[in-house]
């Protein structure tokens, strides 16, 4: 068994696609219309184009429990998911220069360094570097 697709609920799929590609550096993998303005929209790491796909999922607009859960996590400052990076300070500086807002600056915690950003689509995302 292995993970192929992980879902992240987003409030606006087009806005999410722009953020995840132009700011975070992912590349679009699939973009399939599903009707009612929804899409099967995935992005992947440019370093692993055949790796795990991130589904930019429109569920908060169509499923109230998901919307409530997403908002509760966001309001509490809890990241919805995390992405690993090789050099967190370098990635943080790059993203700050692109206008990305962070709710937590790079901070060492034991054998990791973490930072938390706002993906502009209703989620906090944690970046992590293993030290």
List the secondary-structure elements in sequence, H or E: EHEEEHEHEEE
Number of strands: 8
Q: How many strands, what sense, and barrel or not for the largest sheet?
A: 4 strands, mixed
Question: Can you list the strand order of the major beta sheet?
Answer: 1-4-3-2
The amount of helix comes to 25-40%
Total DSSP helices: 3
Annotated CATH architecture: Roll
Radius of gyration: 15 Å
Output the structural class: alpha/beta
Oligomer: single chain
Strand fraction equals 35-45%
**Count of individual domains:** 1
End-to-end separation in angstroms reads 28 Å
Mean pLDDT across all amino acids: 95
CATH topology: 2,3-Dihydroxybiphenyl 1,2-Dioxygenase, domain 1
Shape: globular
Overall CATH class: Alpha Beta
User: CATH superfamily, called what?
Assistant: 2,3-Dihydroxybiphenyl 1,2-Dioxygenase, domain 1
Given as residue ranges, the uncertain stretches (5+ residues, pLDDT < 50) are none
Protein name: VOC family protein
Domain VOC: 2-130
Organism: Flavobacterium pectinovorum
Pfam family, one: Glyoxalase
């Amino acid at each position: 068994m292995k993970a192929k697709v992980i879902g992240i609920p987003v409030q606006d799929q087009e806005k999410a696609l722009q953020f995840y590609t132009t700011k975070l550096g992912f590349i679009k993998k699939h973009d399939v219309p599903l009707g009612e303005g929804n899409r099967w929209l995935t992005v992947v790491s440019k370093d692993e184009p055949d790796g795990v796909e991130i589904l930019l999922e429109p569920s908060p607009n169509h499923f109230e429990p998901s919307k409530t859960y997403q908002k509760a996590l966001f309001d509490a400052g809890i990241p919805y998911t995390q992405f690993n990076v090789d050099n967190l300070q370098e990635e943080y500086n790059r993203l700050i220069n692109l206008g990305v807002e962070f709710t937590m600056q790079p901070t060492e915690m034991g054998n990791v360094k973490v930072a938390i950003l706002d993906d502009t689509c209703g989620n906090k995302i944690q970046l992590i570097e293993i030290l």
